[in-house]
Amino acid sequence: MHPYHHAVSSVRKFGGQPEDYQQIHDWFDGSKMMFADYRHRALRHHAEGIFMAETIFGPTIKNSEGKQVPTRYVGEQHVREDLGFIPSVQDWFTKIKGEPWMRPKPHEVDPDVLEMSLGIHLVQPKKQP
């Protein structure tokens, strides 16, 4: 579904004009510029993406009729129209098949980065002069 058609659907559900909702629907489908098939939805079409939209656009938007509409409701509408339900991030990511290139090679791990992420100090052998 095109973002404009989602916006028209928002008008039927919440009132106002398509322009009131267009930015939110554009944001949900903005990941199409990175991955141009249905899999782009893994980036934003989930519960966390809906809450992220609320962080970006605010908890409510005021439509052209002056009505305050919860941003979360608009996001939920978008995701349900595309998928039929609201998945979690885990629903998406557990379907990604792990590949060897996704894992760091032990010899490629920077000890300084490892120390910071683990919160411990690794003892390094002293370099000989």
Q: How would you characterize the overall build of this protein?
A:
By secondary structure, the protein is mostly helical. The protein has one domain (3-93). It is built from 6 helices and 2 strands, in the order H-H-H-E-E-H-H-H. It has helices at 3-14, 22-29, 47-57, 71-83, 89-93, 111-118, and strands at residues 60-62, 68-70. Strands 1-2 form a two-stranded antiparallel ribbon. Strand 1 (60-62) and strand 2 form a beta hairpin. Helix 1 packs across helix 2 (22-29) and helix 3 (47-57) packs antiparallel against helix 4 (71-83). The protein is elongated. The model has no long low-confidence stretch (mean pLDDT 90).
Shape by Cα distribution: elongated
Quaternary organisation: single chain
Strand order of the largest sheet: 1-2
Stretches where pLDDT is under 50 for at least 5 consecutive residues are none
Output mean pLDDT. 90
Strand elements, count: 2
Give the arrangement of secondary structure elements:
Layout: H1 3-14, H2 22-29, H3 47-57, E1 60-62, E2 68-70, H4 71-83, H5 89-93, H6 111-118
Antiparallel strand pairs: 1-2
Helix pairs in contact: 1-2, 3-4
Concise overview:
The protein is mainly alpha-helical and 129 residues long. It is built from six helices and two strands, in the order H-H-H-E-E-H-H-H.
